[in-house]
Design a protein that fits this description.
UDP-N-acetylmuramoyl-L-alanine:D-glutamate ligase; 16 strands; 12 helices; about 40% helix; alpha/beta
């Protein structure tokens, strides 16, 4: 088992419009489509489309939408045997409005996604224990997210948390993530919540406007120090910024396999930081594309990062000693950029070949300009 995704499955109902409606305004749609989605399912499909072995853990309703979602994931090669069908709830749904510039608004009805319980996650502990990487988000109950992350840590699995949509998250939950991957809005919310919880007012400095990569980098650094994990903030057309913590928890120690532990938990983060004792900060510029729908860009990014983490873990056996974080972020950024060039969530996800060719073309074009 390589990647386990614990998360949501939604049917997306997408309406194309010239401009997003203002409050109280009615606009006409120029095109209407339905497509499989949900942040969990999108991230699972993104990683599988790149070539990873992926298993999905979640819930759907006993309805046509649920069956369609399972069929779509299976077509990508995702193992859906751990997805439970809940007859008492409808399948989750998302109502998405996309403007001609690619901007979108999304309203989600959670439905069966909120039938995923901590007990169900614990029933699948053996499944999670076999994985190299665990990926989860916040379109499912927070207690299920916590249970999944705790299981992952207990079994030395690399944990990735995409804190979307933005909800208040206890600091001890954030510490369970080796990789925390918010967008700029979610990062600002996390920083503000941390400041309110007494994590220090510095965490909120600059958090009101993260469209400036320098401000975002400062917030990423503070979040990394507060959570002791690697923080990657995606910034859309402004690329992404990343920070690894300068310190390990004082109670950390190293187990027999050479992996750092705290409270009996593995810390894959030690191997990511090429300079122990020093904070490492990265800024990755965005790839330039003509965006038509940004709906799944973040999910493509997370899925691609998980793919790279999985490959690095598989190659090294323990830890991430050969993991090139900067290259992984460029790869994830390219996958996210390509996902914006097509309409729909899962239909827009690129293959490994498409991402590699796109990066090669961008490199050649840059060299010619230089």
């Amino acid at each position: 088992m390589s990647i386990v995704v614990v998360g949501s499955l939604n049917m997306d109902y997408v309406m194309q419009v010239d401009e997003l409606p203002r409050p109280g305004e009615t606009v006409f749609s120029t095109r209407y489509t339905t497509a499989p989605g949900g942040k969990g399912a999108n991230q699972a499909a993104a990683a599988a489309r790149l070539g990873a072995e992926v298993k999905m853990l979640g819930c759907t309703g006993d309805d046509a939408a649920g069956r369609a979602l399972l069929g779509s994931l299976q077509a990508f090669g995702v193992d859906v045997s751990a997805v439970r069908v809940e007859a008492s709830e409808p399948t989750g749904s998302a109502f998405i409005t996309v403007s001609s510039s690619g901007a979108n608004t999304i309203v989600v009805h959670r439905g069966a996604n909120f039938a995923l319980t901590p007990e169900r996650c614990r029933e699948c502990e053996g499944l999670i224990a076999q994985a190299n990487v665990l990926v989860t988000q916040l379109e499912i109950p927070l207690d299920a997210v916590v249970a999944a992350l705790e299981i992952g840590r207990r079994h030395h699995v690399i944990t990735v948390l995409n804190p979307a949509p933005s909800v208040p998250i206890p600091g001890n939950v954030l510490e369970l993530a080796d990789y925390l991957v918010p967008n700029e809005t979610e990062a600002a919310s996390l920083a503000c919540h941390m400041a309110k919880r007494g994590a220090g007012s510095e965490a909120a400095v600059g958090a009101s406007d993260l469209s400036d990569p320098r401000q975002a980098a400062a917030v990423a650094a503070r979040l990394a120090e507060a959570t002791c994990g690697t923080v990657v903030i995606t910034l859309g057309k402004n690329g992404c910024v990343c920070s690894t913590p300068a310190r390990m928890p004082s109670s950390a120690n190293v187990n027999a396999s050479g992996r750092a532990e705290k409270r009996g938990v593995v810390g894959a983060r030690v191997a990511n930081d090429e300079s122990p004792g020093r904070q490492r900060n990265l800024a990755i510029p965005a790839f330039k594309v003509r965006a038509v729908d940004t709906t799944a860009a973040g999910d493509a990014f997370v899925g691609a990062l998980a793919y790279r983490l999985d490959r690095a873990r598989a190659a090294s056996g323990t830890g991430l000693h050969r993991f090139d974080l900067e290259e992984a972020l460029r790869f994830a950024s390219a996958a996210g950029a390509l996902a914006t060039t097509k309409v729909g969530a899962q239909p827009s996800l690129p293959t490994f070949h498409e991402v590699a060719e796109f990066m090669r073309a961008c490199t050649n074009e840059s060299e010619q300009r230089g």
